[in-house]
Task: inverse folding
């Protein structure tokens, strides 16, 4: 099992059609219906989205203009007033959904909670009021650093309710990474917990916050709101730190949702790019609400009785769009799980499916490959008959893993929805609609209605079928990122200038390579830039390099990805040392630990190779392409004539 290579997926010819029974009851029932939606959207994109926005969402005030497109800056539903927390909660309280389960939560130690829409609304209003009491106002940024507990979702919705953009920092990030992000966002308050459970251990969170903001390192932060989860001792700074349960006890559960401008910022989410500094991806309110709502409804064929479970972490875009906002906006029941498969219970996910009768299950290829390795006896020992749709996201899925998922988890009964999208796109861009679009293992199939995508060369010319090229999007869509927080120039450079506008048409450059087959199906090959995808987590190689060179022993570092059976890719770092140091196992260990401290465990290099020099071009650029081949144990192909000193390469080859 390896990453899908061009060769392996070029051979992939299997097709799976939705059953007649499934298609009959689906939101979108046939390929013709899908094509009609696409044609309608193509003929009048603004009319298409406006009609859905009117039908599917509640607006306090209608917009004056559907789209204001000043490339590359888009505004959707200009002048409209809306609140996503209202759309996710209040409007359902007027219907029987008031007492429907909104959030089903399962904790790792076996505790659990179910919150109905009424109960969730109550808690969100209380937290919103507490935030206000602590001085948070509309427009202030709030940092969220949480385990997977209901309060993480409550925190998002509470911020949205009062118009305070949130910035969630994944709980696995280190204090250092947390600090950088809080600083960039100038967060006024941080919501965290004492800790969370992961693989039978407590992951401390509050101590990381203490470290990140110690000595006034993040001057904007005035208060920290702490949820009690694990009950371990934590330091509480008087006047700064507050227990959520203390403040919740005395606060009103009445808090009207703020009427936000459709284009008001909803959140910032940091993601890795090609420089050392993570980008703050900015999403706004109205378009994001509409797009996450529609994509979940059609791509996962949401029905009123579904029990929907996405296994992502709220710290990533998948958690934002498809654990919290998309499902709740639709009035669905969304499941949230704190834990992860672990030695003491490798089948815990299947227990959750069985216990709650999960009907839609959405996870990542890296998880599927881990399930395969753990053995099919785990899922086979559980009743998975409630499942009707399976989803995947985060990286290309190899056809073998797709087939295993289809057979062992889906019992050949569940359409597989492979969704290609990004933090930047806000919602699914390429995805099957399970009642309408036949699937092919390894392909994210076709664009969502209203999305115009293509595969082009660097001049923006469409490439021929089955030729590799760059994946681009041609027309603005409602949930596209609006800018890089505080750096509109970087937004333009990163996404709109690699490929110049073609005949006045701006092309969004996704950073992924892809090909289109003769049926127009997309096969995404992975990143074409300096981003590695480790277990579905995006890591910038530059970010890891800067972490390494911040260690006193390191003179220079070059980080590349290498194919890995389980993780998809693993991080390999080539390191040259300062004069007085020499490479040793102990130093390798220390450097790995250093990266963990600087960024977090997800960025720990799998391998560190000490070398006397790095291969460089005459102009001094590190030739990562060569290092990638070396790390992956492949022959060095392509041009090496620009190498400044060939002996460096020969030496590296000898050593590997
Ligand atoms: C949602 C999410 C985005 C990058 C993206 C691509 C890869 C995501 C994929 C996929 C192939 C899929 N990716 N889904 N590649 N098939 N179905 O993962 O967002 O963390 O921003 O990562 O992930 O390389 O560019 P994000």
Result:
């Amino acid at each position: 099992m390896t990453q899908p290579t061009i060769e392996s997926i070029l051979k992939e010819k299997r097709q799976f059609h939705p059953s007649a029974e499934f298609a009959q009851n689906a939101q979108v029932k046939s390929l013709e219906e899908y094509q009609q939606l696409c044609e309608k959207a193509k003929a009048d994109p603004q009319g298409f989205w406006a009609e859905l926005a009117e039908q599917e969402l509640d607006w306090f005030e209608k917009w004056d203009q559907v789209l204001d497109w000043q490339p590359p800056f888009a505004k959707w539903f200009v002048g409209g007033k809306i609140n996503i927390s209202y759309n996710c909660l209040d409007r359902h309280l007027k219907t029987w959904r008031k007492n429907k389960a909104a959030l089903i939560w399962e904790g790792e130690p076996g505790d659990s909670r179910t919150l109905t829409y009424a109960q969730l609304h109550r808690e969100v209003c209380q937290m919103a009021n507490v935030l206000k009491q602590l001085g948070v106002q509309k427009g202030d940024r709030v940092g969220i650093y949480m385990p997977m507990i209901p309060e993480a979702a409550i925190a998002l919705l509470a911020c949205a309710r009062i118009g305070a953009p949130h910035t969630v920092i994944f709980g696995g990030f280190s204090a250092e990474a947390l600090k950088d992000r809080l600083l960039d966002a100038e967060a006024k308050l941080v919501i965290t917990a004492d800790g969370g459970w992961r693989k039978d251990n407590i992951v401390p969170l509050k101590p990381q916050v203490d470290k990140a903001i110690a000595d006034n390192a993040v001057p904007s932060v005035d208060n920290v709101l702490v949820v009690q989860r694990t009950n371990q001792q934590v330091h509480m700074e008087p006047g700064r730190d507050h227990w959520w349960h203390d403040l919740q006890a005395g606060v009103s559960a009445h808090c009207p949702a703020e009427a936000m401008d459709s284009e008001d910022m909803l959140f910032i989410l940091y993601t890795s790019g090609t420089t050392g500094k993570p980008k703050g991806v900015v999403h706004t309110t109205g378009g994001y609400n509409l797009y996450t709502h529609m994509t979940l409804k059609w791509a996962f064929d949401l029905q009123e009785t579904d029990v929907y479970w996405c296994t992502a972490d709220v710290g990533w875009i998948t958690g934002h769009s498809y654990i919290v906002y998309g499902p709740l906006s639709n009035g669905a029941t969304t499941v949230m799980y704190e834990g992860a498969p672990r030695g003491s219970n490798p089948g815990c996910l299947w227990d959750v499916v069985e216990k709650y009768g999960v009907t839609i299950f959405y996870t990542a290829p890296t998880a599927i490959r881990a399930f395969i390795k753990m053995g099919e006896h785990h899922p086979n020992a559980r009743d998975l008959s409630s499942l009707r749709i399976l989803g995947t996201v985060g990286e290309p899925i190899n056809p073998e893993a797709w087939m295993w998922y289809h057979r062992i988890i889906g019992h050949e009964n569940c359409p597989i929805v492979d969704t290609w999208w990004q933090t930047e796109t806000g919602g699914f861009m390429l995805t099957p609609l399970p009642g309408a679009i036949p699937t092919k293992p390894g392909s994210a199939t076709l664009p969502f209605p209203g999305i115009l995508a293509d595969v082009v060369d660097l001049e923006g010319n469409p490439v021929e079928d089955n030729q590799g090229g760059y994946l681009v999007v041609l027309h603005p869509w409602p949930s596209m990122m609006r800018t890089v927080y505080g750096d509109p120039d970087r937004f333009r450079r990163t996404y709109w200038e690699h490929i110049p506008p073609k005949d006045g048409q701006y092309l969004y450059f996704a950073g992924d390579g892809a090909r289109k087959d003769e049926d127009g199906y997309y096969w995404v090959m992975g990143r074409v830039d300096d981003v590695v995808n480790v277990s579905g987590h995006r890591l910038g190689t530059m970010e890891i390099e800067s972490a390494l060179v911040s260690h006193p022993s390191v003179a220079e570092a070059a980080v590349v990805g290498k194919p890995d059976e389980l993780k998809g890719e693993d991080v390999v770092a080539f390191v040259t040392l300062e004069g007085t140091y020499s490479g040793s196992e102990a130093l390798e260990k220390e450097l790995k630990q250093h990266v963990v401290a600087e960024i977090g465990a997800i960025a720990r290099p799998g391998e560190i190779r000490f070398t006397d020099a790095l291969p460089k071009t005459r102009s001094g650029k590190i030739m990562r392409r060569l290092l990638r081949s070396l790390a992956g144990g492949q022959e060095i192909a392509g041009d090496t004539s620009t190498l400044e000193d060939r002996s460096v390469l020969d030496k590296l080859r000898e050593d590997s």
